[in-house]
């Protein structure tokens, strides 16, 4: 199983604008809750545990800076 990591969203700029717009009038806590709900909806749509685990690892690795 290989994750699609190359750009794969039709109209990525439009998607980004819509995503930001959905959070525009939310405070930080509401925005975090929105993001968590969106993640769970998309995870449910994907459904495949191996894919979800691999995606979580990619996201975690991308946000961790190597220690020096």
Please give the largest β-sheet.
Answer: none
Number of strands: 0
**Which term fits the overall shape?**
globular
The Rg value, from CA coordinates, equals 14 Å
In round numbers, the mean pLDDT is: 94
Helix content: 55-70%
| SS-based class | mainly alpha
Number of H- or I-type helical stretches: 3
What is the ordering of alpha helices and beta strands?
Answer: HHH
Fraction in beta strands:
under 5%
Low-confidence stretches: none
First-last Cα distance: 32 Å
Q: How is the quaternary structure best described?
A: single chain
Explain how this protein is built.
The chain has 68 residues and is an all-alpha fold. It is built from 3 helices and no strands. The chain has helices at residues 12-23, 28-46, 49-62. The mean pLDDT is 94.
Produce a short descriptive summary.
With 68 residues, the protein is mainly alpha-helical.
What distinguishing features does this structure have?
66% helix, globular, 68 residues, 3 helices
Topology overview:
Elements: H1 12-23, H2 28-46, H3 49-62
